[in-house]
Fold each of these.
Amino acid sequence: MKLFSQALDSFTHLDSKLFKTLKLLLFYPGKLSKLYTEGIRIPYMKPFQIFVIFNIIFFFIFSNDDLFRIPSTYFFKENFDGIKTLEKVRSISKESGLTFEEIAISYDSASTNLAKGLLVFLIPVIALIGYIFNYRQKMEFGKHLIFASHLFTFILSLFVMSSLLLALMTNDLIKKLLLISIGLGTFVYYSIALKTFYNNSLLFAFIKGISGTFLIFVVFDIYKMLISIFALYSL
């Protein structure tokens, strides 16, 4: 009975932490990072913990998506951005005796696992953007990492929350508009978070928000290309 009570208390405590963390993370940009760096940590989940949760949820829902990897359907072409991927597939097929379909299945599995497992390495890159934007503040890089973890988690949550709408929509134009709105949502959130966490003025937060959002999605594109190439050439 005592063991059951302790387990229930642990679950309730975790649930309380999760709720408080999500409330600040989703609706008060930058505030969770600010509180955490100020030492107010007990009521909230660790930045890496909440990131891992949304990383798992994201890849469960978007396992076939092309945000952090390129599916074989699009990647296996005669010339993909200057890379002769189809030639490599033919070479693998000749050496291994596998069919194109079998190679595609292996590639999709490998690229998904790599994209999921290495996604955490994007956090320091995003943190570096924040560091460059606010280098005059002489802030410890660890604080930039906390901010980047929360920002990246929010971006993943934005895709997760929009997944239902994307699934219900059949019109390509509406889907594209929704994806644009995700980019705008990231920009608005990022700008407010910069103002809150780094104490930037509204104007500078706005400028950095635009630049930072652009750079982050460029980083995403580079990441998915590297992941896809490595997955293919490791088969």
Note: Residues 47-233 form one domain.
Amino acid sequence: MVFVHVCQGHQFEGIYIVTLFTGLREGEVLGLTWDCVDFRRGMLTINKQLQRERRGSGDYHFLPTKSGKTRYLTPAPYVMEVLKRQQDRQNQWKKDAGKAWNNPGRLVFTNELGGNLSAQTVYLRFKKLVAEIDCPDTRFHDLRHSYAVTALRSGDDIKTVQENLGHHTAAFTLDVYAHVTAQMKTESANRMQNFISSIV
């Protein structure tokens, strides 16, 4: 995948890679905290999102997930390795910043002083990256869709994909990704035809 290569070494590489391979929403990945990362079991707990106040101070606050429910993901080991590198990187920032370090929420993805990242900045840098690979219309949310399509085509059952995405029902997931499942049915029929042809 071209995008994976183009974002290597980018300031927000970890955010983009984790989103692409877990299907997290933007607020969920930006609101991921270290207490929700279990390296020993290789699991993530998704129980909140980071959102900016639309009025007033414009500060960022933790809010419940879109569904209001907590979900548990078991990402690919590669994702956990990306998070481990982010932890090492952040520990170095903390050491360099000294008393200036301030990350009270224990956010996974921060700036060099521990502050939360601006969703707008993360989005604009993403748009710049996808423009470099001639995909200027790609949205940050499309990383989530890419995860879902890849998971389905890799053989994950619809219930697992639904739970990982945090959709209310598997029926909703089926509706959203009907084009993928229809193509998978055709491919299944072709495989069955090949099998039949081999025995008759």
Note: The chain has a mean pLDDT of 91.
Amino acid sequence: MIRAYAQVNAAGEILARRDREEETVPPPAALAAHKPRWLPIVAEDPPPVTPGAEVREGPAEVVDLEAGVVRLAYSVRESTPEEVAELRAAKVAAIKAEATRRILALMPEHDQRNSLALGMEMATTYGPDPAGWPAEMRARYEADLAIWTEIKAIRARSDQLEAALPEDPAELWAVDPLVGWDD
């Protein structure tokens, strides 16, 4: 059977790594204490982490001469303030992306530009008061204003969801940016 091995010197330093047939590896007891030996590399199960609040690092190679193995060990540490800030920025970006998706579903960008152009054209041609515009143009403008009202509500909800993001990293991790829009 082929396994991963690390060649280790008497000081516990790894000299080389290689996949080897188990039968070709001399048993450690057969070697003089000062001779390098091949020890099997054994992977440990990664420890659980609290997403957002903790980070798993590794695996690190830990030589255990007494047990005759090299362990691939993991460690867990608290998230740094920078990592929490990155997580918060990612959640904010996801909320903004959902707001953008909803806005564009109501009124694609080309329709937004056309609406602005219509308002500008009517204001410069007929004056700023829509009451003086042709009925057909006024109807289009009013329909667009109704959509703009919905768009402003989406923007306001996006701001609320961003402001409501929790400070606790574990709670922040659990936030689903697709939830809370229709409350």
Note: The radius of gyration is 32 Å.
Amino acid sequence: MSLRLYFHPLSSFCQKVLIALYETGTPFEPHVVDLMDPAASAAFKQVWPIGRFPVLRDEAAARTIPESSIIIEYIAQRTPGCTLVPAEPEAAREVRLRDRFFDLYVNVPMQKIVTDKLRPPGRNDAHGVEEARALLATALGILEREMADRTWAAGETFTMADCAAAPTLFYAGHVMPFGTTHPRAAAYLARLRDRPSYARALREAKPYFDLFPG
């Protein structure tokens, strides 16, 4: 098989790529990486020295493709009729904007809140967490307004932006519940969870949920 994905099922950025792979029906070889295992981590760094996943390896093209958005663009360009990234430039720009919105303003602060829980006693960053919660609250407010007149993040078509939104909103809802405060955002998350591609990624992550400290 030409494509191999290095990932972990619990990772939001990895789930983002899995959703795209399942949406497009792209065949790939899954390679779960346990970064806590020194041998597995060292082997992964031979593929991508930065040591962060997801990473897609295309053996046929002898290419290593890191970063979730770039991986999805790579998949989309090789999938006839794929609408995850629109061909029309303005529509594509809108999708990329929404994709970055979820990655930078929902996922990043969500991860800050989560990782602070993993710090040793006395090493917590209360100020950083407060800033992260404020940014996440602002982002959820923007999303609540935007979802007043659309089904998916960039309109009526499921795109890369929705791949980004699904896992990070799921985890955000655990660290800072928004079901009653942001009903449109919550309804959007419900639609995402009903999407077969994300439902599958979520099922595959379930055995690892005990590792999530949110």
Note: The CA atoms of residues 135 and 181 lie 16 Å apart.
